[in-house]
Amino acid sequence: MDLKKIISPILPIFLLLVLAQIFFYDSLQEFPPALVPLAILYTWALGLLAICFSREKKLPVFKRPNRYFFLAIAVPLIISATAFLASVPFGATEVLNRGFADRSPSSAIELTAFFALLYYVLAGLLLALFFLGGELYWRGFLWEKLKRYGQRGVRTISLIWGLWMLPLVVLADSLDPVHILANGLWVFGLSFALTPILIHYRIQGKSILIPTLFCGSFFAAPIFAKELFPVFEPLPTLIYWASAICLLIGYGIHMKLYSKRAYK
């Protein structure tokens, strides 16, 4: 495996994005919404690169849905719901959205359904569109290059994906050493836990759209939960993400995604 050939095309883009984020660090801290277009650049710069590199062999994006299309929506929702339940004893539900104050049960159900539509369904679709750029590269172009290496190729994608997203997450937060460590563990925990699953869904679903939907559903679920229960303490959030990562790893073990034969 020639890592130089893998890294060299994306290294200039990576350095340019990191330098831009460092240069505008103070402004981004003062106006966090400005991180959104930067995050889009982080993912879609790779997506465009993958499209350019794959002109001779088109990447499979839109295919006839099979059962993995539905699993890509249901499984991350179940994992997220279980992780949220694990965080409840630590104060995840102590603060309820003010909109539920003095509402009747039927009105509360109606508001919950509205939040689900807005903050899970719509947010999930927008996040899927956001992640599609990265998936075109990681589980599309790069996996096609590394699939002959099996588990070694999966681990390589996990590592490079984590390194790619690390500056975006770390530089979006405080540069306190504790925050840097926590964000670093979060990024690499997710990259190594998610990659085997996303590649498995990419293979079985025969489409890059399937792991994209998985990401959209997985990351939209906590947005929906936080809208219902605005959490201001770090402990419930820590428990949620630690539980989610452990559940992803457990799901990967259950699906035997860490075996040597998984990707042959």
The helix-and-strand class reads mainly alpha
Number of helices: 10
Q: Rounded to an integer, what's the Rg over CA atoms?
A: 19 Å
Q: Compute the separation of the termini in Å.
A: 17 Å
Helix content: over 70%
Largest sheet at a glance?
Answer: none
Task: Summarize model confidence as the mean pLDDT.
Answer: 89
Total number of β-strand segments? 0
Q: How many separate structural domains?
A: 1
> In one word, what is the shape?
globular
Fill in the keyword field for this structure.
264 residues; mainly alpha; 0% strand; globular
Model description:
With 264 residues, the protein is an all-alpha fold. 74% of the residues lie in helices and 0% in strands. It has one domain. It has helices at 3-7, 11-23, 25-30, 35-53, 67-87, 105-146, 151-170, 177-205, 209-228, 234-254. Helix 6 (105-146) packs across helix 7 and helix 6 runs antiparallel to helix 9 (209-228). The chain starts with a helix and ends in a 10-residue tail after the last helix. 30% of the residues are buried.
Indicate the topology.
Blueprint (H helix, E strand, L loop, with lengths): L2 H5 L3 H13 L1 H6 L4 H19 L13 H21 L17 H42 L4 H20 L6 H29 L3 H20 L5 H21 L10
In short:
With 264 residues, the protein is mostly helical. It has helices at 3-7, 11-23, 25-30, 35-53, 67-87, 105-146, 151-170, 177-205, 209-228, 234-254. It contains 10 helices and no strands.
